[in-house]
Design a protein that fits this description.
This protein is α/β, with parallel strands linked by helices. It has two domains: 186 residues, HUPs (Rossmann fold, 3-Layer(aba) Sandwich), CATH 3.40.50; 97 residues, GMP Synthetase, Chain A, domain 3, CATH 3.30.300. It has eleven helices and nine strands. A five-stranded parallel sheet has the order 3-2-1-4-5, sandwiched between helices. The chain is globular. The structure holds xanthosine-5'-monophosphate. The site of xanthosine-5'-monophosphate has 17 residues, from helix 6.
């Protein structure tokens, strides 16, 4: 049983101090590695790990081809400015190959997990000689995985998986007692710039969690474009998270006076405190119309845009 530390009771100075000590003791004189995705959790772990281990920590950004537009370069650049070196590893082909032909949501998640932890990471860890992986698992990830709702990509011990046996390295999870609001507080205290600690959450399986059906390079390009539009237009609405989802069903539409059997984008925008429960943001009809017009204009192949008005539960926030 993991003991929760709520954002309210969290004393960031003490928490950081305790975690730095724990990381130092665990790693000793060895080398640890961590994967930065640019999300709030992995960014906070990168700062924490850097504080504890300095040069003993190697941080990589795995370009899995499922990321948002310009993400790898933007994130590496932000950390460079903070004095932390990030190595970008190109593994696009491996992830796409692993996802080929898979339509089942949990199998997709599993394929990403295996490719990430076993193949790509296994290789990097072996090469670097690291015995430890620092990762940003948070309590909500554990809860949902254990409840069998969604297999979060980064949960092992609670499922009875020993990472040492399965992948050959140990995993350290300094944020496991926190939820998203607590992580933000910690990130801020560690000196993360606001553009990172105040960022909306982004799931580990990345844009693959936002494509219904098989993930292909073409569909990724479509959902990536739609994501840019949605993030650009909804970033100032005070919402917890917002996203574009590409559906597998096609619908009849028309473009330039001709019939077009096109694709559909579903927009979700959530109000939430800690992602356990969420309600759709009450966007104005004008905002929704602007969103639809921009998506239709900027994303090739889309003829229909919908807005999700379901709460979590019974919905989950991501579609896959
Ligand atoms: P769901 O879809 O489960 O999402 O309601 C709750 C929150 O978690 C994020 N999410 C993930 N984060 N790995 C993560 O690190 C995952 O596999 C994952 N799946 C969902 C989601 O974006 C939302 O903020």
């Amino acid at each position: 049983m993991i003991k929760e530390i709520t954002a309210k009771e969290l004393n960031t100075a003490k928490f950081i101090n305790d975690q730095v000590k724990k990381i130092k003791t665990a790693v000793g004189k060895g080398i640890a590695i961590n994967a930065l995705s640019g999300g709030v959790d992995s960014s906070t772990v990168t700062m924490l790990g850097n504080k504890a281990l300095g040069k003993q920590l190697k941080t990589v950004f795995i370009q899995n081809g499922l990321m948002r537009e310009g993400e790898a370069e933007r994130v590496a650049d932000t950390f460079r400015k903070l004095g932390i070196k990030i190595e970008i590893i190109n593994a696009k082909k491996e992830f796409l190959a692993a996802l080929k032909g898979i339509t089942d949501p949990e199998k997709k998640r599993e394929a990403i997990t295996q490719t990430f932890y076993k193949k790509v990471f296994g290789r990097i860890v072996k090469k670097s000689g690291a015995k430890f992986l620092l990762q940003g698992t948070i309590l909500t990830d554990v809860d949902e995985t254990v409840a069998g709702i969604k297999r979060q990509h980064n949960v092992f011990a609670q499922l009875g998986i020993d990472p040492k046996k399965a992948f050959g390295y140990q995993i350290i999870e300094p944020l496991i007692q926190l939820r998203k609001d607590g992580v933000r507080k910690t990130g801020r205290a560690l000196g993360l710039p606001e553009e990172l600690f105040a960022r909306i959450p982004f799931p580990g399986p990345a844009l693959a969690a936002r494509i219904i059906g098989e993930v292909t390079a073409k569909k990724l390009a479509t959902v990536r474009k739609a994501t840019s539009v949605v993030e650009r237009l909804l970033c100032n609405k005070g919402a917890f998270q917002y996203m574009a989802i590409l559906h597998a069903d096609r619908v009849t539409g028309m473009r330039d006076g001709k019939r077009d059997f096109g694709q559909q984008i579903e927009v979700r925008c959530w109000d939430s405190v800690d992602a356990r429960k969420a309600t759709p943001t009450k966007l104005t009809f004008e905002t929704l119309q602007k969103l639809s017009a921009a998506i239709i204009k900027e994303v090739p192949g889309i003829v229909s845009v919908t807005y999700n008005i379901t709460t979590k539960p019974p919905s989950t926030m991501e579609a896959v």
